[in-house]
Amino acid sequence: MRERLAVAFGAAAFAVAPFVLEALDESFLLSVLTRMLAYALAAAALDLVLGYGGMMSFGHGAFLGTGAYVAGVLLHHRAEGSAVMEWPLRVGGTAEALIAWPAAAAVCGVLAAAIGAISLRTRGVHFIMITLAFAQMVYFLVLALPQYGGTDGLMIPSRNVLAGWPLAGDAPLYWVALVLLALFLVFARRAMASRFGLALRGARMNERRALALGLPVYRLRLVAFTLSGAVTGLAGAILANQASFVSPDLLSWQRSGELLVMVILGGQGTLFGPVLGALALLAAEEELAQITEHWMLVLGPVLLLVVLFFRGGLWRVVAGVRGDA
Amino acid sequence: MPEPLLEAVGLTRRFGALAANEDVSLTLLSGECHAVIGPNGAGKSTLVAMLAGEQRPDSGRVLLAGEDVTVLGPARRARRGIARSFQITQLCRGLTVRENVMLAVQAAEGRSFRFFRPVRSDASLTAAADSALADAGLSSRAETPAARLSHGEQRQLELALALAQRPRVLLLDEPAAGLGAAETPALTRRLASLKGTVAMLLVEHDMDTVFALADRITVLAGGRVIASGTPQAIRADRAVREAYLGEVVDA
């Protein structure tokens, strides 16, 4: 009950935010909120893997960044009028979000399936290290592509258009990001209450039992990992539009770590918790960074306190529920 | 002689210098209850682990209905009809009792890649789970998280999970472990009611349970089979009495 109230309140707040900000003449903040929504989508997607599946992926930055680069590269070639590749078939650039964003999700899904197929043969610390290693490989691969800016990143000349409707200005992108986040949360909630979710959670709680029952544990985890990677890539495509810039920084291990912090801070295995975690972490960064450049010095201990004393994260404090143990 | 449903052929498993199982062979016929007994450290749990696919033998083979399943892992053997209970209860402790059983049912159906319908309203799952819970006498605890069950109830659920898989072969690793004096006879009656419907390999220390249920008994000591036969023959076997039964009976 309390959780429903919390979700309803959050949804209402995001629904009226653009109008309130406009009335307060603070519309520039809408762009900040859009960035939060994109990270919230990525954090919720990571929660499928971490909270429900029990897989500590330290490589989700690779999907966030790759998704951003796919959208960015397609826009770049569209502006140049050049082809992304000529062989084996010619792929041109595009500004159409209905093509570019599914492409970002698909590329990241394939990448996640490949990384997951290998990583999921390991457990525990090995899994953490191997996902990190793969993410670093993607990071250095992108740095080695001078045509897309290398370390400087890639400027995006103009944003995507959605079915011909330009996502120019702050409001259109905000609404699209909000709708995508809401759709994903509804889908993921359902999926985690379905047979798939039950099996994924059961395998996390007791892998030995899950195997003895005959559950396809490896395939369950691979599907969750692939889905999570694809949605994280979609979040990256939103981020690319929000910033009109794609930085290799999105691919870095610091981003992967930040996503993990969002999930844990908010409360793993709840989906809404990681959304709240993303909002809280980014808001704290924003505020603290204005006070001191050593903001991590303040945020670090706060995170420590949350992990030590608020098992179940912020969502447990707000909504009174936590992910199943 | 009917063809054996499950067959171990010369299973050997070594941990360093220790041979946990040395050339162990046995058969399980359909419908029978075959008990494996032996002192602690005799290699009973290792044998069950090799039959279930959790451990790979160093040599030897496992046949299920004549088919070699030696290289298959536990999940694939489970899907072919081998279910097991564990000596130390293995449950999904964060799930409710019903969810645990639903997981077993859906695993047996082999349909876990369904993303949209909540399991709560999946009639085929809930109906099968509820009937399994009724059989196990756990209906009133259906909504309780498995972690909150008493030890005896957890043991009941452990068995209910294996049965919900509708197995051809049931491997029971000390199902009476940790049960009280009142609970063990109830378990024995429950297992007796299953006789004939599923082939059972029963590893058990409680001799009353073993002699009440077993059609055949194999005795392991030091990783080797030292005797195998009917309960009467095992009772009369001198080597067995020295190695094992004598100690227990006199204690």
What would you say about this model in short?
Chain A has 325 residues and is mainly alpha-helical.
Structural class of chain B: alpha/beta
**Fourth-level CATH superfamily of the largest domain in chain B:** P-loop containing nucleotide triphosphate hydrolases
CA-to-CA gap between the ends of chain B?
39 Å
State the largest interface. A-B, 29 and 42 residues
State the domain count of chain A: 1
Order of helices and strands of chain A: HHHEEHHEEEHHHHEHHHH
State mean pLDDT of chain B (0 to 100 scale). 93
Structural class of chain A: mainly alpha
Total domain units of chain B: 2
Q: What is the CATH class name of the largest domain in chain B? A: Alpha Beta
| Shape category of chain A | globular
Which oligomeric form is depicted?
heterodimer
For the secondary structure, the number of strands of chain B is 10
CATH level-two architecture of the largest domain in chain B: 3-Layer(aba) Sandwich
- DSSP summary: helix tally of chain B: 9
Q: Can you offer a commentary on this structure?
A:
The complex is a heterodimer of chains A (325) and B (251). With 325 residues, chain A is mainly alpha-helical. Chain A has one domain (30-257). Helices cover 72% and strands 4% of the residues of chain A. Chain A is built from 13 helices and six strands. A two-stranded antiparallel ribbon of chain A has the order 1-2. In chain A, a hairpin with a 2-residue loop joins strand 4 and strand 5. In chain A, helix 2 (29-52) runs antiparallel to helix 9 (217-243). The two termini of chain A are 20 Å apart. The mean pLDDT of chain A is 94. By secondary structure, chain B is of the alpha/beta class. Chain B has two domains: 1-81 and 167-251, P-loop containing nucleotide triphosphate hydrolases (Rossmann fold); 90-166, no CATH class. Helices cover 37% and strands 24% of the residues of chain B. In chain B, the strands form two sheets. A six-stranded mixed sheet of chain B has the order 6-7-8-3-9-10, with helices on both faces. In chain B, helix 3 packs across helix 4 (123-136) and helix 3 runs parallel beside helix 5 (151-164). Chain B is globular and about 55 Å long. The N and C termini of chain B lie far apart (39 Å). The relative contact order of chain B is 0.18. The mean pLDDT of chain B is 93. The chains are: A mainly alpha (325), B alpha/beta (251). Chain A binds chain B through residues 187, 190-191, 193-199, 201-202, 205-206, 208-217, 219-220, 223, 324-325, and chain B through 52, 54, 73-79, 83-84, 86, 90-95, 99-100, 102-104, 106-108, 110-120, 122, 125, 147, 161, 165.
